[in-house]
Amino acid sequence: MCDLTGDLMMDVYLGDINKRYGELAEMSPERWELADRGSYGILKNYLTHTYEKLVEEDKIIKRENDGLFNTGLFTKNYELIYAYLEPNIANGSQPFYLKAFLTEYDLGRKGIDELPERANYFSDPGLLIFDANCRIKVQYSHILEDSKNLERLPLEVQNAKNLIPLFNGALDMMKKKVSANYRIAIPQYYNKTIQLLLPLCLLDQEIPDTALVVSKDPSGTFYQGHTCLTLEMAYSNARLIAKPESNWLQLV
């Protein structure tokens, strides 16, 4: 049996890509598109990285005549959706061809009982909750001096002379809000680590407009503030683990 690379497009021939993602979006309806991501941009990002994680965890079922992986998505009736694969004989170099997205019942009709597990992001649940007692060490040069990253902040503050005190004020207010409600911190999975997305209110202290990305240092005593994301970027990243339920990312 062939080895898988972890790259969905290299391992699985999808055929008409937008049609395939449209089928999956119809089975698991939610907001899968954002203005700057194109057709099904969030869903494509989700499935690409989910597949990569499943290969890393050796959770792809490979048999002589078919293959299977768990998308981690559910139908409206809370049935898990699986990607059913067949050997790719005529459509290029990928070892598999995506035959269909199927439920457990659908697979049962094919006589398939062995089902693959979902991707697991929760080996250390403690990383999912922001520790308000820890300092945040912000990478200011990356966030405020790099032009591409600066563009992720609201246009109104990008050239502000008081940007650093404005940013620090938003940071202090965010810490108070997260202390009052830990659910405000939303996890994302990046570069094989759990990070947290924290809302910053740079224009209006009641309306988040930017997400600060932090991860806990291995010592467990402080956070590193790596970068800032637009809310659209934050939503797409967070969706890899779960559909964001916190109000500040539902504003997108």
Q: What secondary-structure arrangement, pairings included, does this model have?
A:
Elements: H1 8-11, E1 12-13, H2 17-27, H3 41-56, E2 61-62, E3 67-74, E4 80-87, E5 96-103, H4 104-109, E6 135-138, H5 140-145, H6 147-150, H7 163-180, E7 186-190, E8 193-200, E9 210-216, E10 222-229, H8 231-238
Parallel strand pairs: 1-5, 6-10
Antiparallel strand pairs: 2-3, 3-4, 4-5, 7-8, 8-9, 9-10
Description:
This protein has 252 residues and is of the alpha+beta class. It folds into two domains: 8-109, no CATH class; 125-249, no CATH class. Helices cover 29% and strands 24% of the residues. It has helices spanning 8-11, 17-27, 41-56, 104-109, 140-145, 147-150, 163-180, 231-238, and strands at residues 12-13, 61-62, 67-74, 80-87, 96-103, 135-138, 186-190, 193-200, 210-216, 222-229. The strands form two sheets. It has a five-stranded mixed sheet with strand order 1-5-4-3-2. Strands 6-10-9-8-7 form a five-stranded mixed sheet. A hairpin with a 5-residue loop joins strand 3 and strand 4. The radius of gyration is 20 Å and the shape is elongated. It starts with 7 loop residues before the first helix and ends in a 14-residue tail after the last helix.
